[in-house]
Amino acid sequence: MKHAHNTTRARAIDPLPGFRFALVSTLLWVGLIVALPLTALVMRPWQEGIGAMTAALQDSRMFAALRVSFVSAFLAALIDVPLGVILAWTLVRARLPGRRVADALIDLPFAIPTAVTGITLATLYGPQGWLGAPLARLGISIAYTATGIVVALMFVGLPFIVRSVEPVLRDLPPDLEEAAGLLGARPWQIVTRVVLPALLPATVTGFGLAFARGIGEYGSVIFIAGNQPFRSEIAPLLIVVRLQEFDYPGATSIAFVLLVVSSLCLAGVAWLRRRVARGLITGAAA
What we know:
Blueprint: H1 2-12, H2 19-47, H3 50-57, H4 60-93, H5 99-106, H6 108-111, H7 114-125, H8 132-137, H9 146-171, H10 174-182, H11 187-216, H12 219-225, H13 235-244, H14 248-285
């Protein structure tokens, strides 16, 4: 009897103090900050009738802006992958002077305003800039072109790759590499067959984060892109243009299409990450 009373009392004690408060707070935050605005965005284009959405789907300028945004974000994230892995490797394994300073500088894109980033890159890669002038003499234009968009997105997306890979690389046991070396593996085989497969899920995660950031990036892009319709105009800028024209149905329609396509792309990245992780677990079990 006493044992049953103690069991009932133990069940009555909340194992996580404040759990109900945390649950309610989380649901309110998700509902008011995430779900409600997204629901309003989904419903708003249809309030003007199906004509607004039909007109948006026939807007060639919108599809050109979406193409520029997604292609630029994909290329920037793809280029950032090897650069981010190398930087993460350097920060974790190398004991170079100034490593702490370099580690702090990697997080700089998180801290500085995006407009400052855009102005700095436009000045640096402009026709009279420190890097833009020598490149212009070689016939290479960065600023005010689609290439400038990729450069800006590389700058803001690189920290996502580094910070995703760094903790996994830090926790990777050096014994695996030593064992592979003792078994006769060459350095390039150790990297390709031991290190890189272990980093692959984190790399895919970092790629997805950099890609998602690049799709919606605005401030750091508009100063260096040139913003030419059908060439270097991004989708977030076109939304602002429509709002300045008081074309609210057109702006929300573009935002709706951008939301749907972005969600599909991110779902694809998440699916790929799960497949990679499942493949590694299956391979390790085998």
